[in-house]
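Below: protein 1.
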Amino acid sequence: MTRRLRITVPVAAIALLLLSTPVLVRESAAQEPTDQEQATKQEQFELLHTSITMLSQQYVDDVLKTIAFVLLAIGWILTSDRSRAFLKSNRAARRAALITVPVVALLTFGLSYKIYRVSGQKMDLLDELRYFDARFYAHDGITFYFFGANLLVHLALFLTLFALIYSLSRAKS
């Protein structure tokens, strides 16, 4: 009984605090915005186009940073006797690396897909807006071909890194 009371008292106190907190509601929030309050097509276009452009630039930047990091890791293993000796002799470090590489690869692929989808959704919104012909901004989004090429390059690099680390466990001393 005492244990149950200890759990329910804090929960009840939090619930009471949340329920007693005043909620501020604007009267005009329920009203539809007037024509003057709504964003013009030009403002909507500029907002979406800027968002897509920044998203694409950040995506390319992140892609290049990830490629550089994986290439650096591959180069470190290939050129450093000490790194190979360490990974070969330290089973825990090797296992951590063998777990980390696929996890980072999956996170990279998942985030890339998410960004690709968001870019596509924003491009669709631009198309629905019909402010400019799509030919003027189609190159600003993340295309399927760029996304696919990105995934293939990353897959090759992550598999190479994984294979290098894995081969150290099989190499004879």
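Below: protein 2.
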Amino acid sequence: MAVSEAAKGFTYSELRHYIVKRLQIAAPGKSMKQLLTTISNQDNVEQIVKELPQYKMILAKGSAGNGNKVKRKRHEKQDKDDDEEVEKETDDEVEKETEDEEDEEEDAMTMLKEELAIRGLTSKGNTYAFLVKRLIKSLRDED
């Protein structure tokens, strides 16, 4: 049985809850397709496919009573809070990586301008294409 067939009838929240709690994956994905991909990439995918129908039955039994709606809402709110926390952490990581990349670009631009200056060429210009082209032409002329 394929993962998509085993996951039929699950809502995004239900499947995400299973992945986060059972498989202990903190950020399984932001769409149903990504959740299915996350499951497919697991080493024990056959076992997961067998567990999903059992998990669905447990969910169906649990939602039969009125009191469980409150619990479900609480879980959905917790899932939303977890999503927001993971999203914030991801945003922080992306921002840090962007800053690192900007620093690397500045370093590369400085090195490029230094190489041009060593060869007695002007280093006016702020685009890599222009400066690299000048450096390559200079290197070819040296040969």
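Helices lie at 3-6, 12-22, 32-40, 45-62, 67-118, 128-142.
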